[in-house]
Amino acid sequence: MYLYRAVDSSGNTLDFLLSPTRDAHAASRFLLKTLAASHTSAPRVMNADKNAAYPKAFSELKAEGRLPKNCELRQVKYLNNLVEQDHRFIKRLTKPGMGFFSFKMAWRTVQGFEIMNMLRKGQLQGAGKGDMRDQVALVATLFGVAV
């Protein structure tokens, strides 16, 4: 399984996609999903790792007019560090479990990890970054747990 993640320049998670393949089609799906989100603005620059699928997907989306003409794709090793450092949190949680038995279970688990990571970073409305009472109340409301 491959986890695609988009992080803005402030370190906020924009979107994520779990895919069984790492090809141009999966990269295009991820970019379209991220661009379609209401909280995402038109990007000026996209930093990515050196996977060969990104330039192909990027050029196809640009040709279709789904990406701004002035948007630039940069595949420089160290510019991707912001995403890699944020991604380390997820890797630390999934490695001890030694993988998943099904795509459905992996998707549900990664969704939970991502939401809790966003909550920890203070990205959710209704719960501040350091406000534990509000965070506990929000999680209790989401999962129907009595506090």
TrEMBL record:
Signal peptide boundaries: none
One family name in Pfam for this protein: DDE_Tnp_IS240
InterPro entries in alphabetical order: DDE_dom, IS_Transposase, Transpos_IS6
Domain of life: Bacteria
Sequence ranges assigned to domain DDE in this UniProt record: 2-123
GO biological process, one term: transposition
Entry keyword set: DNA recombination, DNA-binding, Transposition
One Gene Ontology molecular-function label: DNA binding
Keyword Transport applies: no
The protein, known as: DDE domain-containing protein
